[in-house]
Specification:
Order of helices and strands: EEEEEH
Number of helices: 1
Number of strands: 5
CATH architecture: Roll
Length: about 80
């Protein structure tokens, strides 16, 4: 099973769609990724990121719902690991 993380696009670099790069914010962490699969995305929009590639553009509401679910899972697993 694969997990794609919702991220907000901070900037887009390049002219060739096949080599388009972008900086994204993963809840406070900024990374550079490939936007080759989503060349239509613009700064401020959200994408799902897997293995350094944006896989799909999503709306802000969907991104926030996904983050909320991830935070709930992390909290639950974190409590389960505590002695």
């Amino acid at each position: 099973m694969c997990l794609a993380i919702p991220s907000q696009v901070v900037s887009v670099e390049g002219d060739d769609p096949a080599f388009l790069l972008g900086k994204v914010n993963f809840g406070g962490i900024t990374k550079q990724i490939s936007l080759a699969y989503t060349p239509e995305v613009r700064p401020g929009e959200y994408v799902l990121v897997h293995a350094g590639f944006s896989m799909q553009v999503v709306d802000e509401q969907e991104a926030k719902r996904s983050w909320q679910t991830l935070e709930e899972l992390l909290k639950e697993f974190g409590e389960a690991d505590s002695p």
